[in-house]
C-alpha cells in the first residue's frame, strides 16, 4: 500500500467498535481498494472507469463509497452508511451511543451503551446486564473480569437533553469518550 493513493479515511462509530475505513484510488489506473480496520475487503486493480461506487458491509450495515468527478482529474469521495450520509450517520450514532474507555485490570477497555435498548458492549461483545430501579433513576449492573461496573441513568431535568448516563467501575466514575 502506498499512502499516496489513500484519498479518504472515515471513522465510523458502531456499538461494537469504531471502524476505520480507508479508500485507495489510483487516478491513473482506476485502482480501488477499500480497507476496514486495516483489512482489505475490496480490490479492483485496473478499472477503465474512474468514477463509480464501491458497496460493502460493516456490522450488517450497507456502506457505499461514491467516486464522483468534480473537474479534470479531481474527484470527490463520499461515504454512505445504512442509507445515510456519513456525517448524518455519525451524528445519529452520537445520539444513540455513549462510549467510555476505562483501564480495567491493566487493559484499555471500551464500554458502549446503546441508549435505546440499554444494551452494553464491552470490547465488541454484548454483555449480560441486570437492571435495577434506584431513587435517582436506573442502574445497569455488569462485570468486566473481576471488576464490578454499573451505568447510572437519571433524568437531566431538561426535556431536550433527556437521560444522562455515567459509568462507574469499582466505584470510580469514568469519563465519557468523545466520538
Q: Strands across the major sheet, in which order?
A: 13-14-15-16-17
Please report the first level of CATH classification, the CATH class of the largest domain. Mainly Beta
Give the radius of gyration: 20 Å
How many H/I helices?
1
Helix percent reads under 10%
CATH architecture field of the largest domain = Beta Barrel
Uncertain residue segments: none
CATH topology of the largest domain: Lipocalin
Strand content: over 45%
Q: SSE string, helix = H, strand = E?
A: EEEEEEEEHEEEEEEEEE
Largest sheet: 5 strands, antiparallel
What does this structure look like?
- This protein has one helix at residues 86-96, and strands at residues 6-13, 18-25, 32-36, 39-44, 52-58, 61-71, 74-81, 84-85, 97-104, 107-114, 119-122, 125-127, 130-134, 137-144, 147-155, 163-169, 172-174.
- It is mainly β and 179 residues long.
- It folds into two domains: 3-82, Lipocalin; 95-174, Lipocalin (Beta Barrel).
- The strands form four sheets. The chain has a five-stranded antiparallel beta sheet, with no helix packed on it. Strands 1-2-3-4 form a four-stranded antiparallel beta sheet, covered by helices on one side. A four-stranded antiparallel beta sheet has the order 5-6-7-8.
- The chain is elongated.
Amino acid at each position: 500500500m502506498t499512502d499516496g493513493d489513500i484519498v479518504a479515511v472515515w471513522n465510523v462509530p458502531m456499538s461494537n467498535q469504531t471502524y476505520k475505513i480507508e479508500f485507495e484510488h489510483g487516478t491513473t489506473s482506476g485502482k480501488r481498494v477499500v480497507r476496514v480496520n486495516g483489512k482489505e475487503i475490496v480490490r479492483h486493480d485496473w478499472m477503465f472507469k474512474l468514477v463509480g461506487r464501491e458497496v460493502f458491509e460493516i456490522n450488517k450495515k450497507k456502506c457505499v463509497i461514491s467516486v464522483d468527478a468534480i473537474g479534470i482529474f479531481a474527484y470527490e469521495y463520499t461515504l454512505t452508511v445504512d442509507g445515510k450520509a456519513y456525517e448524518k450517520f455519525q451524528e445519529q450514532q452520537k445520539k444513540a451511543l455513549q462510549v467510555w474507555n476505562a483501564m480495567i485490570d491493566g487493559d484499555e477497555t471500551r464500554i458502549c451503551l446503546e441508549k435505546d435498548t440499554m444494551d452494553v458492549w464491552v470490547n465488541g461483545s454484548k454483555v449480560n446486564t441486570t437492571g435495577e430501579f434506584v431513587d435517582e433513576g436506573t442502574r445497569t449492573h455488569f462485570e468486566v473480569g473481576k471488576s464490578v461496573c454499573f451505568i447510572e441513568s437519571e433524568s437531566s431535568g431538561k426535556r431536550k437533553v433527556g437521560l444522562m448516563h455515567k459509568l462507574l467501575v469499582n466505584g470510580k466514575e469514568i469519563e465519557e469518550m468523545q466520538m
